[in-house]
Amino acid sequence: xxxxxxxxxxxxxxxxxxxxxxxxxxxxxxxxxxxxxxxxxxxxxxxxxxxxxxxxxxxxxxxxxxxxxxxxxxxxxxxxxxxxxxxxxxxxxxxxxxxxxxxxxxxxxxx
Length: 111
Hints:
alpha+beta
């Protein structure tokens, strides 16, 4: 299982990306919430509202998730991958039932 921490500008963007991820079975569950973000941009410190989207999915879908997000936004954002050390069995059973694992490629099998 992987969890993705994704920053977006608005809750509407998070809702659109979440729906698309769920419809394409790239995620089993998503959460989003507003935060305040402070960052350096072009030599200045900027503070503004931001939305964090958390995506719970199988380990093999990073590329597809990033491609889908690029269909919805064009600005620089953070997509951070988090690998939990342990997950409760009932959640993993739900994840495995809803989001299929990708088969291992021949290159991966031989590694």
